[in-house]
Design goal:
The chain is mainly alpha-helical and about 180 residues long. It has one domain: Fumarate Reductase Cytochrome B subunit. Helices cover about 70% and strands about 5% of the residues. The chain is elongated and about 55 Å long. The structure holds protoporphyrin IX containing FE. The site of protoporphyrin IX containing FE has 26 residues, from helix 1, helix 2, helix 3 and helix 4. Protoporphyrin IX containing FE binds next to helix 1, helix 2, helix 3 and helix 4.
Length: about 180
């Protein structure tokens, strides 16, 4: 039930997948919206507080997700799937996991390099990874933005792939969507 099997994802992977799907779209939307607001805008400060705390939550979930995959490996890709599709699917998934870890770390560094610590919803502070550093701050802003848009691109590709298997491939065996969402 909780663990993944050869043919389907278990409860834990399904739950984290669903929560992260909502959180990442929320983070991308809020991130893009607040980046356009004036730095002195109160709304920007409030959104930034939500964005940074929720980003730390995304980081924690990503660590659990990657660790869980080591303990309980993902279902095998369908035998009849073309090799190029298997390679592309694996590449897209691996890059998404990597970005789910690197984007929040770059985000934490944006805050730390200004000399501030990141608060997790006011409950505790994430240990500082580095001190004030203007050059690193600017670099991390660029990296955070570039990686966030790369993740958006990969998520779109990932969804397009799942929809293709469901609606355009002629075999039920290739419908990988039911392994994550089906009974
Ligand atoms: C998967 C998680 C995350 C996603 C998808 C994400 C996404 C984004 C996006 C799309 C932007 C707007 C970039 C721009 O257009 O300039 C942004 C800005 C920002 N994010 Fe994140 N973010 C995440 C996690 C975090 C975390 C964990 C932190 C810090 C703890 C953080 C701190 C910031 C800051 C400070 C900005 C504003 C940068 C600026 O002033 O231009 N983010 N984020």
């Amino acid at each position: 039930m909780l663990g993944n099997t050869e043919n389907r994802y278990g409860l834990l992977s399904r739950a984290i997948h669903g929560i992260m799907l909502l959180l990442i779209f929320g983070m991308l939307g809020v991130g893009m919206y607040m980046a356009d607001l004036d730095k002195t805008d109160e709304l920007r400060k409030e959104l930034l507080w939500m964005h940074t705390s929720t980003g730390v939550l995304v980081l924690m979930l990503a660590v659990v997700r990657v660790t869980w995959l080591k303990i309980s490996p993902a279902p095998r890709l369908p035998v009849m799937m073309d090799d190029w599709e298997k390679t592309l699917t694996t590449l897209v998934k691996s890059l998404m996991y990597l970005l789910m870890l690197l984007i929040p770390i770059a985000g934490i560094l944006i805050v730390n390099t200004k000399g501030d610590a990141v608060s997790f919803y006011g409950l505790f502070e994430v240990p500082m990874l580095t001190g004030e550093n203007k050059e690193l701050h600017e670099l991390m802003e660029e990296i955070h933005e570039l990686f966030a848009f790369s993740l958006l691109f990969l998520v779109i590709l990932h969804i397009a792939g799942a929809l293709k298997h469901r609606f355009f491939d002629m075999s039920k065996e290739l419908d990988v969507m039911k392994r994550m969402f089906g009974k």
